Structure formats: structure tokens, C-alpha cells
Amino acid sequence: MNRFTASSINKKDAILFMNRRLFVKRTSMATAAVLLSKYSFAAQDTQSFPVVRTSPGDRNFTSKAVEKLIAEIKSNIGNKEIAWMFENCFPNTLDTTVDFDMVDGKPDTYVITGDIDAMWLRDSSAQVWPYLPLCKEDEELKQLIKGVINRQTKCILKDPYANAFYKNEHKKGTWHTDHTQMQRGVHERKWEIDSLCYPIRLAHGYWKETGDTSPFDAQWVAAMQLVVKTFKEQQRTDNKGPYSFNRKTDNATDTQPMGGYGYPVRPNGLICSAFRPSDDATLFPYLVPSNFFAFESLGQLLTIVGAAKLTFDTSAIDSLMTQIVTGLDNDSKIKHDKFGKIFAYEVNGYGGVNFMDDANVPSLLSMSYLMSTMHKDETYKNTRKFVLSQENPFFYKGKAGEGIGGPHVGADYIWPISIIMRGLTSTDDTEIKKCLDMLQHTHAGTGFMHEAFHKDDATKYTRPWFAWANTLFGEFVWKVYREKPLLLS
Fold first, then answer.
1. Among 107, 141, 192, 204, who pairs with 147 as Cys (CB 3.0-4.6 Å)?
2. Helix (H), strand (E) at residue 86
3. Residue ranges per domain, the chain?
4. CA quadruple 218, 223, 229, 231: dihedral positive or negative?
5. What is the CA radius of gyration of the chain?
6. Cα–Cα nearest to 361, from 412, 430, 419, 440
7. Strands 164-165 and 119-120
8. Phi/psi of residue 17, each to 5°?
């Protein structure tokens, strides 16, 4: 694996080689094996940044539009470390996680998360989302994303309650012993509202960028009808619905109590979510940011139905949206002693409130990212201040940085996704620059984002290959490059 020899190594290369060895030393053997098999390290003249991106011959997919943008940003921004990180992170989904094919004459794209060979409806949508504006100049990229929409349609039709799937529809899943209605081809069956919202967001974004309605065929319509049906079932108006989940585990956040249905709710129009976007169990089933996301997604579904002239019972969508917004108006806004009226993270309809935020999207912080008008909302503004303060039990501040974590990887670990989302939802130059600086100084010399890092030591991190965080970082840098380029000087 080592490209350097005793006869050819110079001083600069020697420093790089020692940095590489230090990087491997600080990383677990499993992590090192993943990285050294995926990436090659070599000296660079510019700022001595090693080549860590997958070599061209080993990339899963190459987009000419993405490569053109990378070259432009590398040439035009003064912060060469951020430019190097952008080159590594922005194409990471395409380089390492996509598997494109033609199935029954239609594009089909399977997208893994990175170091887990399974396709999450949430992650796969978020991973390709930043490439949408480039589809107009790259037909192959357009077909790739169209293939993601087609694959997600199949997944929803297979099981609308599942969050993650395999490419092999006959594969017995890692969690096949879970007490729920598991099928072959399903990796995990944790019911999360956002799992059905993200595919709608992706489809709507694809249509807006391309004007192409061809993915919205009879199968897609059937999948969307199943989405509406599932949302209505999980309002639990008359009964608990068909879904329950129980796992034999020592981890309380990996299962649901009360026979697998979770703690009781009083029906109020909101949709129950058994799990959060982190794949952790909800405490109270009415997960507020996910219900806002559902409302937004259903509105986008109505737009697609109208634009594509699809046969669909829109009255069912209208009714569902009215019920959701009523529940949100009545139960999601709570007076906080310090911040005034804010959005709760979870409620139960009985007055039970969970004041917190989690790093994973949808989160309270991310609502103005997912809903363009939310940034004007006074309750959201108050909420944003709350979640970025130590009143939020999962906001951590240490020597390495500050940001939001969550129960998923334990205390004191900050998720780069939360720092990126803070930057994406900010209009303040100082705050945006602060987020860029933290991300620049917490990649632990790898040139990539991670799932989480310790608040006092960024070299202690989880998941070295996490494509969602990588691509989202690229989206953030590109946004700053377009709107506030001086912050990248």
C-alpha cells in the first residue's frame, strides 16, 4: 500500500508518510482497513494535502458536471484545506456508494450509506440531493438520480414501515430476528416518518430541476398511495395500527416498550413515529420535526400530482395535511422558561413534552432547511437558540468544537451533520464562518466528515466512511461559495 521508498522519499513526502502512519495508528484496525482499501495516499504540492479520494479507476460513478464544479471551487477559493475537503467529500456518494443498473428498461440505483451495505430511504435521498442542480448539464447523472427514485419506489411497495433495504430482495437481513413483520430483502424495519418523506422530497426536487415526470408512473403512484395510507394508520385515531417493533437488546433506544407500540398517545392528528431519524426509539411517539416534514412532503406530493396530471385522491392528502397542521398548532408549541415559545422535540398529546434536539435530520434545527418559509417563524427562531444552547441536553461544547449529538453514539460526541446544518440554516456570516472553521479543524486529518467526534478530541470519531455527512458538507461549501464566497478566502 505504501507508495514511498527509501530512495525516492523527500522531506515533504516523509512528513506526509508520518502523518499517514499517525492517522492509521489513531484509527481502529477495522477503520484503517476500510480506508486503506478505499483510498490512496500521495504527496501534493498544494499545502501538502494527501490524495485520499478514491482513484478514478475505482470510482463507482463519475459525473462530468460534478468534476467540473470541483475544479472550479478548487481554483477559486483561497482556503485550500476546505477546497481539498470539498474535493474529497462532495463526490463521495458517487465515488463509493452508488450501484447503477437498468432493470426492466428503467434506471435503477442502489445507494449504500457507506460502511453499511444497506440502502436507507432517508440517507439515499440526502446523499444524492446536492447533485440535483447539476442534472441539466449531465444526462448520466440525471439517469442515476432517476434510478434512485425508481429503487425507492420498489422499497416502499415492499414495506412502507421499513427504513433500510438490501439490493438482493431475497437476502435474510441482519435483524431478521426482530419481533415485527420482517421480510427478506429488508435490512431493518424501524418505522420512521422521515423514511417516507425523503423520497417525496427527492422526487419533487428532481422534477423541479429537470421537468421530467417519467418516474411518476403507476408504480410510483401506488407507492405514494401507500405512503398516505401508512401516515393515516400511524395517526392511531381508532387503534394502534398494524405496526409494532420489539428487539432483544441491551440498548433501550433500539426497541419499543408496551408490546412494541411505544408509550401511549392521545390522538390529535399527528403521526406517530416509533423511531427517530437516528434510528433511536422515540420517547413520545409524536416526533415534531418529522410531522412538520410530513406536512411539507405531502404538499410537495400534491404539486407533483397536479404537474404530472396523475390519478390520485387528493382529498385524502388535503384532509391529512389539515389534521397534521391542527395537531402541530395545538400541541407542538410549548412555553420554555428561558427561550419563550419553542417547538418541542416530542409530545404525546397528554401534555408530555420532551425538550431536546438530535443531530439527525429532520431535527428541530433543520426545519428551516427542509421548509423554506420556516426561517421567518418566531417560534422556530426561539427554538434554534434553544437547541444551540446547553439547555438542550444533547448540545455539547468542548476543546475540539461544539454542536449537537444524541443518544445514538453516546454522550459528549458531536455530529458534523449538526454543525453543517447549523451553517446551512444560518444567515449570520460570523456563525457560518465558525461552522466552516469547526469542520475544517475536526476531520482529524482524514479529509472526510465522520458520524461523530468527541467534543474534546476530534481524533476520537465514529464511522470514517459516512457518505451522507460527506455530501452534505459539500452542499454547505457550495452554498457558501455561491452566496458568501469571501468566507472561503
1. 107
2. helix 80-89
3. 1-52
4. negative
5. 22
6. 419
7. antiparallel
8. -65, -40
Selection from 266, 243, 396 nearest residue 331 by Cα: 266
Furthest-apart CA atoms within the chain: distance in Å? 77
CA angle 35, 40, 42 (to 5 degrees): 135
d(CA 71, CA 402): 31
Burial 102-116 (b: 16+ CB within 10 A, else e): eeeebbbbbbbbbbb
* Distance from C-alpha of 442 to C-alpha of 455, rounded to nearest angstrom: 9
Phi, psi angle pair for 22, to nearest 5°: -65, -40
Single-letter amino acid, residue 240: K
Question: CA 261 → CA 243, 245, 273, 375, distances in Å?
Answer: 7, 7, 10, 34
Q: Which residue has the cell 385522491?
A: 313
Give the Å distances, CA to CA, from 399 to 359, 453, 456.
Answer: 19, 12, 4
Rounded CA separation 469/92 (Å): 10
Going residue by residue through the chain, which has 489 residues, state the pLDDT in tens, using 9 for 90 and above. 333 223 333 333 333 333 333 333 334 434 444 443 333 333 333 457 999 999 999 999 999 999 999 999 999 999 999 999 999 999 999 999 999 999 999 999 999 999 999 999 999 999 999 999 999 999 999 999 999 999 999 999 999 999 999 999 999 999 999 999 999 999 999 999 999 999 999 999 999 999 999 999 999 999 999 999 999 999 999 999 999 999 999 999 999 999 999 999 999 999 999 999 999 999 999 999 999 999 999 999 999 999 999 999 999 999 999 999 999 999 999 999 999 999 999 999 999 999 999 999 999 999 999 998 899 999 999 999 999 999 999 999 999 999 999 999 999 999 999 999 999 999 999 999 999 999 999 999 999 999 999 999 999 999 999 999 999 999 999 999 999 999 999
Instruction: Give every CB contact of residue 116 below 8 A, 6+ residues apart in sequence.
Output: none
Helix (H, G, I), strand (E, B) or coil at 88: helix
C-alpha cell at 7: 530512495
Backbone angles phi, psi at 95, to 5 degrees: -65, -40
Per-residue cell: 42: 500521495
Q: Which candidate, 130, 36, 88, 116, places its Cα nearest to that of 463?
A: 116
d(CA 416, CA 408): 14
Contacts made by residues 436-440, CB under 8 angstroms, sequence distance 24+: 436/79, 436/82, 436/476, 436/477, 436/480, 436/487, 436/488, 438/401, 438/402, 438/403, 439/85, 439/473, 439/476, 440/79, 440/81, 440/82, 440/85
Pairing of strands 164-165, 186-188: antiparallel
